[in-house]
Amino acid sequence: MIASIIWGIVGMLVGVIIATQLSWWEMNGKFLETISFGLFKGEGLQYITFGRLRPLHTNAVIFAFVGNMMFAGVYYSTQRLCKARMGSDFLSRLHFWGWQLIIVAAAITLPAGLTRGKEYAELIWPINVCVALIWVVFAINFFLTLHRRNEPSLYVALWFYIATIITIAMLYIVNHLSIPTSLIHSYPIFGGLQDGLVQWWYGHNAVAFFLTTPILGIMYYFLPKAANRPVYSYRLSIIHFWSLVFIYIWAGPHHLLNTDLPRWLQTLGMLFSLMLWAPSWGGMLNGLLTLRGGWAQLRTDPVIKFFAAGITFYGMATFEGPLLSIRAVNAISHYTDWTIGHVHAGALGWNGFMAAALFYWLAPRLWKTKLWSTSLANMHFWIGIVGILLYVAAMWTAGIMQALMLNQTNDAGTTLKYEFVETLKAIHVEYFLRSIGGTLYLIGFILCGVNIWMTARSGVATNDTVEVAALPREKKDFMKWSETLLNDPISYIFMGVVLVCLWFFLPPHANVGALVAAILLSIKAVLAFRKNSKPWMVWHERLIENYIPFTFLVVISVAIGGALQIIPSLIVNRDKNIEGRLQELYTPLELAGRDLYISEGCYNCHSQMIRTLVPDVMRYGRPGITDDYSHLGESIYDHPYQWGSKRTGPDLAREGGAIAVGAKNMRIGKRDNVWHFNHFLNPRQLNVDSNMPNYPWLFDKKTDFKSLPKKIAVQTQIGVPWPALTKDEIEQNAREQALEISENLVKGGVYLEGAKDKDGSPLQGAELRNYLAEREVIAMIAYIQKLGAYKEVKKAGEDKPTPLDPDTYRKAAMPVTETPPAPATTP
Amino acid sequence: MSDSSQQPKRGDFAKHAGEVILREHEFDGIQEFDQKLPNWWLYTFYGAIIFFGIYWFTYYQAHGLVADHDRIISAMTAINQKKNQELETTLATLDDKMLINTWSTDPSIVANGEAIYTTNCVACHAADLSGVMMVGEQKIPLPGRPLTDGKWEYGHKPMELFKLVNEGSPAAAPGYNGAKMQAWAQTLTPKQVAEVVAFIISKNPQEFPPVP
C-alpha cells in the first residue's frame, strides 16, 4: 500500500452530473409556474394537474436537483479530504446512471398518477427498491474511500456526509415499508396517526439529512477553499454537528401540531424544534464567520456572494423553523402558504444558492479554465435574490392573510365571517407575485446553465492524478470498541439520555425522580468537564481518526429520537385501545375511490384533519357537537393516512355522512351526489372562484374492480379488519353500490355530454345508470361520502394510566372535569 | 494531527497567551481556527434546553396548562350557548308579518340577503332561484329545489322557511332526489338567515302577500 494513490477529479463524471442538475432545475422552474397557472388550465390533460405535478416538483427539486448537486460535491471533496480515489469507479458510474434512471422513472410515473400518496415518498415500490439499492451503492463507495484514506483524521465535512448517508438509508427504508398489491401499487404498513408520525419523521428529516447536512458538509469544504480562510471554529463544528444530528430527528411531530396527535408527541416536536435553533445557527456562524477577513471578496467573487447569501438564507430558514414549531404560531402557519414560503426560503435560498456557488467554483477547476463570465454570474445572483424575496414575501403575506381571514368571526363571535373560497380569492395577487418570483429565479438559473456550459466549452475536462504518500495502516482506524464506548463523555451522555427518557415515560413520582437524577447527572458532568476536559477532547480527536466507531455513534444518535417516538405509539395508539370514535371500514367501492383520491394527488390540496382549534371546529365540525375535531380513531385504518399538509382547498374530514334513508350502502354527506358529480365536472359551475381543476377523465375512465380482491387481501395483512369476502362478493358489492349511486344521480337528472349511444343520442334512464356505474367518478363520490364516518366505542377503564403514554398519567392525576351540558337545539 | 495528544497542550498555550488558536492540521489546504463559542449562541442553546424542562414539567408534572380537548370543548360550549341566545333573541323579535312586511321590503336587507345567497346558495338553487343550470342548450337540474315554482315542501310560512334554512332539511325527510340541505346555522347568524329568507320572499311577491 505504499504505492501512489490517485487523488483526482472524476472530471467528466461530475461534469455530466452538473449538466443534469441544470436541466432538471429548468424542468422544476416550469412546475413552479404551473403551481399557480396550471391550476387555471382546468380541462385538459390529466397528467398535468397540480395534484400530480406537485409531487414531481418536490421530488425533482429534492432528489434530482439537490441530490445530484450533493453527489457532485461529495465525490469531489471526499477524494481530496481522504487523499484517495473513490472506492470504485464502477460503483461511481453505477451510482450516477442508476440515479438518473430513477429520476426518469419518477418523471414518467408521477404524472401518470402512480403514487404511494405520501409526501416526498410518492414513488412506487419498484422505484423505491432501486433508490435503496443505489443508495447502498453510494454508501459502499463512500465508505470504501474512507477505508482507504491516506489522511488519518476525518474532516468535519465528512462527518456530515456520514450522517447523511446513514440517516437517509434508515429514514427511507422505514417510511417506504409497504406491501405490494401489484407491480405499480402498494399499501404502507403503517396507518392513521402512526403513518403520520413515520411520514413526518421521514419528511422532516429528509429536509434535515438530504437538504441540510450534506450541504453543510459541502459548505465546510468549498467555502474555506473559495474564501481561502480558515474555518472559524473547530469546537463549534463538534458541538453543532453532534447536537444537530441528535436533536433533528425528534422534531418531526411539529408537522402534526394542534391535531389530535398525543400531546406528548406534539410537545416533544415543538420543544426539540426550539432546541434545534442554536445548533442550526452554529452551522451558519461557522460559515459566515469563516468569511471574516475575507469580506472584500464579496464584491468581486460571485462564488463568495452565493455562499454568503445561501448561508444567510439558511440562518433565516432555521430561525423561522423553530418559530413555526411553536404551537400557537403553527395554528396560523400550518395548512397555509406560510409554510410554502418557509420551504422555498430554504430550497431556493440555501440549496439553490449553495448549488450555484458550488457550480461556479467547480466548473473552472474541472475544465481547467476560467469562468466564462463573472458578470453573468453576478446577474444570476441579483435576479435570484429578487426572485426569492418576491416569492417568499408573497407567500408570507398570502399565508398570514388567509389564516387570519379563515379565523375571523362575525361580530358576535358565533359564526365565521368568510367562506373558504373567499380567502382563496383574496390571495390571488400574492399567487401572481409568487409566479413572477419563481420565474425570475428560474431565469437566473438558466443564466447559470449557460455560463457553466460556456465555461466547459472553453476548457478541457481533466482527470487529475496526484501522488500522495500512503498512510501506514496503524495511523488510522485503531480504536477498539471499548475505547469508543467506555469513557466519560459517552457514559454521561448515554446515562443522561436514558434518565430524560425515563422522565418522559415513567409513571408519576418515578418520573420526577428520573428528572432529579438527570439534573444531578448533568451537574456532575459539567463539573467533570470543567475540572479536566482534556480526556474528552483527546477522545474525540481519536474518534475522528476511526471511521467505523464514529459512524456507529452517529447511527446511535440519529436512531434514538425516532425510536422513542414511534415505538411507544405503535404499542399504545392501536384500534383496540381507541376511546370514543372508531373509523367505519370502507366498502370495496369506497376503497377503490380512495385509491383514486390518492392517485389524483387530492391530498396535495385537501386535508382530512380538523385540528383542535376553535376556528377549525367551527368551520368543519358539525353543528352543536363541541368536540368535533378529528379524533385519532377516525383515520386509524387509513393506509396511507391522508391528513394532508396544505389547504389550497377546504378540509374534507367531515364531508361524508350517514347511509341515506332506504339505501343499502350509499351515503349522503354534507353535500349530495349530484353536487359532487357536477363539481368534479367543473367546480366553477358551483363556485365561481374555485381554483380546483376539472376532472373530466373521471367520467370516462372505468373503475378497476378487478384489482380490489388483491388490495383487500393486502389490507387485511396489514391489520385492517375486513370481513371475509370472496372475490365475487367483493366485486358484486362494489358494483351494487356503484349502481345505487348512479341510480340516485340519474334520478337527480345529471347530464353527461360524453354519455351517448351508438346513434349519438344521449343515454337515458337505466342505460345512463349502467354507463355511470362503471366510471371512476362514482367510486370517487362513494369515497367522499364516506369521509369521517365512525362508530362510537366505549371501553371500560377509561382514564387509567397506560404505560408509555404520559398523557394518560396526566389525565389520571387531574381532577375529573364535568362534561359540559349538551347544547340546546333550535326550537 | 500526527500526534493528537499534543493538541490540547498547544491549545492551552494559545489560550494562555490570549491568542486565537489555529489548529495544526490542515485538510487539502483547509485550516481551522478553534475559537471559543459565542456566548449569546451558548445561552440561546442553554435557554432552549431549560425551556424544555420547564415546559414539560409545567404540563406533565404541575398540570399547569389546559389540555387541548378540554380547551376546545369549553370554547365550543361557550360559542354554542351564545348562539342559542342569539337565536332566542332573534326569534323573540321576528314573526311572519315582520319578515314579509318590513324585512322583505327593505332594500338594504334584501341586498344583504342576496349577497349571502350568492355566496352560499347558488351552487344548489341557481342564481335565478330556478334550481336549474344551463350547459349550452341543455337544462340540468341542480341538487336544490326550485325556489320560484310556488311549491314549498316544508311549509310556506316565512318562519317555517327560517327554521328550514337554519336547521337544514328535517332529519327524517327523504330529501329532494335524495339531496338534503345542510343546517346553515353553522355558517350564518340568525340575522343572516332572516336576511336570506327576506331575499327569497322578495323574489316571490305573489306567494307572500303583505300581512294586514
Strand pairing plus helix content of chain A: what structural class?
A: mainly alpha
Low-pLDDT parts of chain A are 1-44, 820-827
Q: Give the quaternary arrangement of the chains.
A: heterodimer
* CATH fold title of the largest domain in chain B: Cytochrome Bc1 Complex, Chain D, domain 2
Regions with little confidence, pLDDT below 50 for 5+ residues of chain B: 1-11
Could you say what the CATH architecture of the largest domain in chain B is? Orthogonal Bundle
The CATH superfamily of the largest domain in chain B appears as Cytochrome c-like domain
CATH architecture of the largest domain in chain A: Up-down Bundle
Mean pLDDT of chain B: 84
Structural class of chain B: mainly alpha
Question: What sort of overall outline of chain A do the alpha carbons produce when their principal axes are compared?
Answer: globular
Strand portion of chain A: under 5%
Largest sheet of chain B: 2 strands, antiparallel
* Arrangement of strands in the largest sheet of chain A: 1-2
Distance between the termini of chain B: 104 Å
Please give a structural write-up:
The complex is a heterodimer of chains A (827) and B (212). Chain A has 827 residues and is an all-alpha fold. Chain A has three domains: 11-475, Cytochrome C Oxidase, Chain A, CATH 1.20.210; 481-576; 577-793, Cytochrome c-like domain (Cytochrome Bc1 Complex, Chain D, domain 2, Orthogonal Bundle). Chain A contains 29 helices and four strands. In chain A, helix 5 runs parallel beside helix 7 and helix 13 runs antiparallel to helix 15 (428-458). The relative contact order of chain A is 0.10. Mean pLDDT of chain A is 87; it is low at 1-44 and 820-827. With 212 residues, chain B is mostly helical. Chain B has two domains: 4-61, no CATH class; 81-203, Orthogonal Bundle (Cytochrome Bc1 Complex, Chain D, domain 2), CATH 1.10.760. Chain B is built from eight helices and two strands, in the order H-H-H-H-H-H-E-E-H-H. Chain B has helices spanning 7-16, 39-61, 68-93, 96-102, 107-120, 122-125, 158-167, 190-203, and strands spanning 132-135, 138-141. Chain B has a two-stranded antiparallel ribbon. In chain B, helix 5 (107-120) packs across helix 8 (190-203) and helix 7 (158-167) crosses helix 8 (190-203). At the A-B interface, helix 2, helix 6, helix 7, helix 8 and helix 18 of A face helix 1, helix 2, helix 3, helix 6 and strand 2 of B.
